[in-house]
User: Which sequence fits this backbone?
């Protein structure tokens, strides 16, 4: 596990340096727009998605400089979704990663614009990559689909819609899991494969989908069992807001069993991927056992 932790920190540090350098070059008028964008983008976090992108790039032999722009665009999209998710009209959370949410620091209107700014900047990065060739354009298209109305946004909408119902079905739960969280964990895996001329695409796509489901399962479980200080956000909100979660559908013990089964499926899929997948297997274990 020490080797995994070291590799994770190296991937994380590499991305952090790249993201910081880019973010510091963003100049806006008024300054508050750029300041609020940087506040959330550079507010730490596990950086699971960029780390996953870099790790898959290494498995497939894709140079880091080719995947890093997409990793940054993806993290910008993820960050904008968190800013908007914390707003009073959505999940209404005052804290993110242990600090005041963007709207508590800059106000609701500026928070909305910070999210809009990050989303548009992400696509500006993707447009620049498209000029490099077909694979780069296909990678940008895939990211767009994972983030848009057939991806993460659909999942967010479903999450809100099903919270209005007293009961939720397993099928509805899977839809929320696959789209709300899963699509942005599928994206870095698939994009790495696309840039490697679709090497192991179907196996890696299956892995990305399953890992996304596992991440949302553990997120649901942590909302019941987690520590606010470690999570950096309020816990117990899912039950209070009647969210459709795996704990609601299966119960806490059942959710834990299904998370273990999901992790087992991830390991099995990776057996069919060529290259050294030891770090990816470690990442599955990390997601399953995480405390934040």
Assistant:
């Amino acid at each position: 596990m020490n080797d995994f932790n070291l590799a994770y920190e190296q991937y994380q540090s590499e991305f952090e340096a790249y993201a910081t350098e880019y973010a510091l070059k963003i100049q806006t008028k008024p300054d508050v727009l750029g300041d609020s964008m940087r506040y959330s983008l550079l507010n730490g976090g596990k950086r699971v998605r960029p780390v996953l992108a870099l790790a898959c790039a290494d498995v497939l032999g894709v140079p880091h400089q080719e995947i890093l722009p997409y990793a940054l665009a993806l993290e910008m999209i993820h960050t904008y979704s968190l800013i908007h998710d914390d707003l009073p009209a959505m999940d209404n959370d005052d804290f993110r990663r242990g600090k005041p949410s963007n709207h508590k620091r800059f106000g609701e209107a500026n928070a909305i614009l910070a999210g809009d700014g990050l989303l548009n900047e992400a696509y500006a990065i993707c447009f620049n990559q498209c000029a490099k060739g077909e694979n780069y354009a296909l990678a940008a298209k895939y990211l767009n689909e994972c983030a848009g109305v057939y991806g993460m946004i659909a999942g967010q909408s479903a999450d809100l819609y099903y919270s209005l119902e007293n009961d939720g079905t397993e099928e509805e739960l899977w839809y929320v899991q696959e789209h709300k969280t899963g699509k942005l964990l599928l994206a870095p895996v698939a994009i790495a494969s696309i840039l490697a001329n679709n090497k192991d695409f179907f196996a890696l796509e299956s892995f990305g989908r399953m890992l996304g489901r596992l991440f949302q399962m553990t997120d649901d479980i942590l909302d019941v069992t987690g520590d606010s200080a470690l999570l950096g956000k309020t816990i117990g909100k899912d039950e209070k807001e009647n969210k459709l979660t795996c704990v609601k559908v299966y119960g806490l013990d059942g959710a834990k069993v299904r998370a273990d089964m999901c992790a087992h499926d991830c390991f099995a899929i990776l057996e069919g991927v060529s290259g050294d997948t030891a770090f990816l297997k470690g990442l599955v274990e990390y997601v399953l056992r995480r405390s934040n």
Q: What stands out?
A: The mean pLDDT is 93.
